[in-house]
Amino acid sequence: LLLRGCLFTSSSRVYRCRERLGAFSEVVLAEEKRTQKLVAIKCIPKKALEGKENSIENEIAVLHKIKHANIVSLEDIYESKSHLYLVMQLVSGGELFDRIVEKGFYTEKDASKLIQQILDAVKYLHDMGIVHRDLKPENLLYYSMEEDSKIMISDFGLSKIEGSGSVMSTACGTPGYVAPEVLAQKPYSKAVDCWSIGVIAYILLCGYPPFYDENDAKLFEQILKAEYEFDSPYWDDISDSAKDFIVHLMEKDPRKRYTCEQALQHPWIAGDTALDKNIHESVSAQIRKNFAKSKWKVSCSLFFLQRDILQPHCRHFRDGVFLYSREPTRSRGPEIVPLRSVVQCSAIPKAYSLLKNPNYISPIRPKFTYL
Questions:
Q1: Computed over its alpha carbons, how large is the radius of gyration of the chain?
Q2: Catalytic one among 98, 110, 134, 193?
Q3: Which one of 145, 242, 280, 306 is CB 3.0 to 4.6 Å from 106, fit for a cystine?
Q4: pTM over the 0.90 mark
Q5: Domain at 96-290, CATH homologous superfamily
Q6: Cα 78 to chain center, whole Å?
Q7: Tens-place pLDDT, residues 9-27
């Protein structure tokens, strides 16, 4: 289905399929024929939606209306007999952690500005009755490669839409970022997103997660009890205001937890209490240590880069949204591509800064996330 030249029953009249994005995801890079604008198209098997047709139609109708500067937008939708095709805005600036690690200077104020953008976007969703339910750093992408690029929330395509005064009960999300009430299998509301933003803020200031254990049961127990610390020496140079901000978001009781609106009014966001001290060395070291999981290892990542992306005569699309190499690789079989043969560009999350620092190693995902 997701090979070059594939045709969409309806959308093929409007979009030309260019490349598959990622080793496992059902996402393709496509070009709008009329404008030559590049987009990402997410392909959803209808079998996965059986029995949910009415709710899906209602949710997409609302999602189609979402227009916010910090949210990856749903631009169009098509369907065939077997699939739904969600046409999404293409963002090309890479993942949040990769950009932080590559910076030479990073402060509390930088983290505060990032969280402010996230809060603005999530407040917008909440005001529309939409709960993301899976906020995490991997779903925060930079719009472009520009130094001052805005951050974008992605992967919200079929998030839960609240009814009037309704609560949710489906257990979902990523364990390290999920709120206690979700793990407790209690009814929950949009407050779960605010908890996740608190976890993200925590990581942005120290480089490691507030909850961690190799044993899932123990991890869940920590989260259920909201047991976390501001450990020394990693938090010694972080302001009390930042810690207070996190405490209000990572409040165990969702009724006492800050809303997005309250968080936006906190001095660490709205005031000038975020410090200018450079914390890059400590934070970037911890990010590389704590988020370099086995599935992100360099050898695996480069294998997928070569197998699924690199071509014998690599092309560079009009606006830089593809990968090119200094040497052909396909004819050599599935060997590992040398680091120096891969040239950084926007089709890959900005995980390597090879031109600036060839010795820098950061985890990049085999699955390139655009949605």
A1: 21
A2: 134
A3: 280
A4: no
A5: Transferase(Phosphotransferase) domain 1 (1.10.510.10)
A6: 24
A7: 455 556 666 555 544 347 8
